[in-house]
Amino acid sequence: MTTTLFKSVETPGSPSIQDKIRLALEDDLRQGRLQPGMAIKEQELCARFQASRTPVAEALLLLAAKGMVSILPRAGIYVRHLEVRELVAMMEGLAELEGVLARLAAQRISTEQQQQLATALARTAECAASDDPVGYEQANARLHEVIYAASGNAFIIEQTRQIRLRIAPYRGQLFEKPGRLSRSQGEHELVVRAILEGQGEAAAEAMRVHISAGGRAFAD
Fold first, then answer.
1. Local structure of residue 51 (DSSP, 8 states)
2. Closest Cα to residue 173, out of 85, 84, 61, 40?
3. Cα–Cα distance between 156 and 192 in angstroms, integer?
4. What is the Cα–Cα distance from 204 to 202, expressed in whole angstroms?
5. How far apart are CA 87 and CA 217, in angstroms?
């Protein structure tokens, strides 16, 4: 009954209740409110979203298909806990995708986006200087999003975001590693310089090195 009521008020193109639940849970993962191994209770989600069990279960099935949650019969539903080898493999794939996006950004970036990129770099520098891993993580995400937008390739951007979403619960631990903030900032500076100078291959290589360094930090 609840699902029918939601459907009756939806307008064309508006997200379904299932999509709203899925997107909210993805944001919980991205922001660290859901951590690896944490149990997810369907009844609590039903109450939170004022929805029946059906759209909640469908949203969880979609997240399971993306590898973000584990549904264990007679045991429960949990945030997927990735093994180190999986994290490293994802970082390897992410390095290649982000390298392509950086190369495209160097070729296509607009004047306005150049200014946005410079501002984003200044913000990561501030957070690195003050040893603020939480602020740095947010500023880092902004910097990469500017590069994504400048690339102009929606397909590669989507693939990249999916990988980043899966590793999101672990990224805070990455930036808490001693010395990682300053090294990450130095890597950012090389990427941004190459993009602003229109050096596509240099930007791609600098980005691959940057992401690969994060992969090695994960492995450690």
1. -
2. 84
3. 19
4. 5
5. 11
